[in-house]
């Protein structure tokens, strides 16, 4: 039996210019239109969200099931009806005989179905064969209703239904779903459009975010336990309870934005490719993701705001920090690689796997200050390290303890593999030295840094050694040659060092060989005549005793 699928969009558009929400659902029919007969297909459409119908469109899927009696499109006509007789139902003509002559033909009816959504929730499609001789089978009907949505209601388009915003920003109440998998309810916004749910999600079914536009969840969910599948465009989570106890699945290229001040705690899966995980739109926005992120896909952090990851995740794809700041206070070491792109910043006191700070990217270890653990790490030319210190006490060079205070008083990168510096003398890696008021995490003069005293800090230790463009210490013949070559790859900026701002030459880079392949990257301050805060009474006493002793020696 040869089947001919005919996809026909039959539109009944109202005359209003302010159409808002569209709800769409598919109804399986699979019935023949008898010779000279009428096929009547009724369906209920539960609704508590659209108050006034402003337009209806119907999509029919026909086939020709009998080769001996093929379909004759010109014989068919159709009407659509809303409501029961007791409600003074409304009926609109879709097309008359002879008008249906193309598989892509559209028919427009005036405003016969305009008006309030009737309480019966009943719709009926009548397809009539007006002249015998050909049999048409109606496989399915897709109905789309456009209308005004009540802000306080909850719209239920039924299993497999879709709620859509075609243009502008359209606000509605809540949405409910009882369908799972293929029968999930769709939340769709066309490119440039936004669909705003002000009363949240509910139901045990699933939702699908569709379309290139934005869907915003601004309210707590009501007993939502299903899965939200973000298949395209952007889903903004603007309430910490917007997804209830449900799960979140994000397709490659789709975006989930966690608004400032919001914590996302729902399980989050990226099956493949790379999903976009966006922070707030302002640099002052702070959003938190405590979710366990799973799947073989990865994430791309975008948005100007700061995003804090606190969970222990298992996803294996790549992580890019393209915009704003990503703070890892949890564990994403399962990710194949973290790349800090130009304009992005990576911070936190958690754990990452392989790490690359690309040109224009910034590494800001810790939470002012702190320790970040990373796997094999690459520092590229044009990238930077924002290194913060609030107290140098214990790191005096004569103490020979450059690890004293690491992670507590100054930033420390613990590399469990190799640290490979791929910068060049013409395109250096930048270290910005930033002093903090001790215990406040705000800019100001750090404690310590006494005049005439040298200080040394291990800003990074790599268990697999430090390399220059992939070549280790052995390729340079001597320790001095290796250190000289490495130092030429760094540019130290002290504009943020309040104790002695601008005296870059007082700082230098070297390394120290530890046990086995371990090597530490050392930052040394040669504290000459520094502009520092007034010395304490204790230091004044020491200086006074030194002067007395010197006078006695001269005597």
Notes on the structure:
The structure is a single chain. The radius of gyration is 34 Å and the shape is elongated. Among the domains are: 6-144, Galactose-binding domain-like (Jelly Rolls); 337-555, no CATH class. Strands 11-13-15-17-19-21-24-27-29-32-35-38-41-44 form a 14-stranded parallel beta sheet, with no helix packed on it. Strands 1, 2, 4, 7, 8, 10, 12, 14, 16, 18, 20, 23 and 26 form a 13-stranded mixed beta sheet that branches. The chain has a nine-stranded parallel beta sheet with strand order 22-25-28-30-33-36-39-42-45, with no helix packed on it. It is built from two helices and 47 strands. With 555 residues, the chain is mainly beta.
Short description:
The protein has 555 residues and is mostly beta strands.
Overall number of strands: 47
User: What radius of gyration results from the CA coordinates?
Assistant: 34 Å
Instruction: Going across the biggest sheet, name each strand in turn.
Output: 11-13-15-17-19-21-24-27-29-32-35-38-41-44
Oligomer: single chain
Q: Biggest sheet: strands, sense, closure?
A: 14 strands, parallel
Overall pLDDT confidence:
89
User: Which range best describes the helical content: under 10%, 10-25%, 25-40%, 40-55%, 55-70% or over 70%?
Assistant: under 10%
**Low-pLDDT ranges:** 1-19, 529-555
Keywords:
single chain; Jelly Rolls; disordered N terminus; 47 strands; 555 residues; mainly beta; 2 helices; 14-stranded parallel beta sheet; 13-stranded mixed beta sheet
């Amino acid at each position: 039996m040869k089947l001919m699928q005919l996809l026909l969009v039959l539109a009944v558009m109202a005359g209003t210019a302010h159409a808002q929400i569209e709800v769409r659902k598919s109804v399986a029919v699979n019935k023949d239109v008898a010779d000279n007969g009428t096929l009547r297909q009724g369906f209920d459409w539960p609704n508590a969200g659209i108050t006034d119908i402003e337009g209806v469109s119907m999509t029919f899927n026909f086939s020709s099931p009998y080769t001996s009696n093929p379909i004759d499109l010109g014989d068919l006509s159709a009407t659509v009806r809303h409501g029961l007789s007791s409600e003074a139902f409304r009926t609109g003509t879709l097309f008359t005989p002879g008008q249906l002559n193309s598989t892509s033909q559209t028919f427009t009816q005036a405003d016969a179905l305009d008006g309030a959504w009737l309480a019966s929730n009943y719709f009926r499609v009548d397809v009539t064969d007006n002249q015998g001789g050909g049999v048409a089978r109606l496989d399915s009907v897709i109905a789309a209703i456009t209308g005004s949505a009540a802000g306080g209601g909850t719209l239920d388009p039924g299993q497999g239904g879709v709620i859509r915003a075609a243009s502008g920003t359209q606000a509605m109440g809540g949405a409910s779903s009882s369908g799972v998998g293929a029968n999930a309810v769709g939340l769709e916004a066309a490119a440039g459009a936004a669909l705003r749910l002000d009363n949240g999600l509910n139901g045990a079914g699933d939702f699908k975010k569709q379309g290139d536009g934005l869907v915003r969840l601004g309210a707590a969910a009501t007993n939502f336990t299903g899965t939200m599948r973000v298949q395209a465009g952007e889903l903004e989570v603007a309430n910490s309870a917007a997804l209830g106890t449900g799960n979140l699945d994000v397709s490659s290229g789709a975006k989930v934005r966690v608004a400032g001040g919001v914590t996302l705690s729902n399980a989050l899966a990226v099956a493949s490719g790379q999903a976009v995980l966006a922070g707030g739109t302002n640099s002052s926005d702070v959003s938190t993701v405590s979710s366990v992120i799973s799947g073989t896909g990865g994430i791309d952090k975008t948005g100007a705001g700061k995003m804090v990851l606190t969970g222990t995740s298992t996803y294996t794809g790549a992580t890019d920090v393209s915009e704003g700041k990503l703070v890892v206070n949890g564990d994403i070491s399962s990710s194949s690689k973290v790349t800090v792109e130009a304009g992005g910043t990576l911070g936190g006191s958690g754990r990452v796997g392989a790490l690359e700070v690309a040109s224009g990217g910034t590494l800001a270890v810790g939470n002012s200050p702190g320790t970040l653990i990373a796997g094999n790490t690459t520092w590229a030319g044009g990238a930077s390290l924002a290194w913060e210190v609030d107290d140098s006490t214990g790191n005096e060079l004569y103490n020979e303890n450059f690890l004293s205070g690491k992670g507590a008083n100054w930033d420390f990168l613990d590399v469990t593999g190799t640290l490979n510096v791929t910068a060049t003398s013409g395109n250096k890696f930048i270290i910005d030295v930033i002093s903090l008021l001790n215990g406040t995490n705000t800019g100001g003069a750090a404690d310590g840094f006494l005049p005439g005293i040298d200080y040394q800090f291990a800003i990074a230790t790599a268990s697999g050694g430090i390399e220059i463009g992939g070549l280790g210490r052995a390729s340079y013949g001597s320790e001095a040659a290796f250190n000289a070559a490495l130092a030429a790859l760094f540019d130290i900026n002290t504009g943020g060092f309040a104790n002695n701002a601008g005296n870059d030459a007082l700082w230098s880079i070297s390394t120290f060989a530890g046990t086995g392949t371990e090597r530490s990257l050392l930052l040394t301050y040669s504290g000459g005549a520094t502009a520092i805060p007034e010395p304490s009474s204790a230091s004044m006493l020491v200086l006074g005793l030194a002067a007395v002793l010197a006078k006695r020696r001269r005597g």
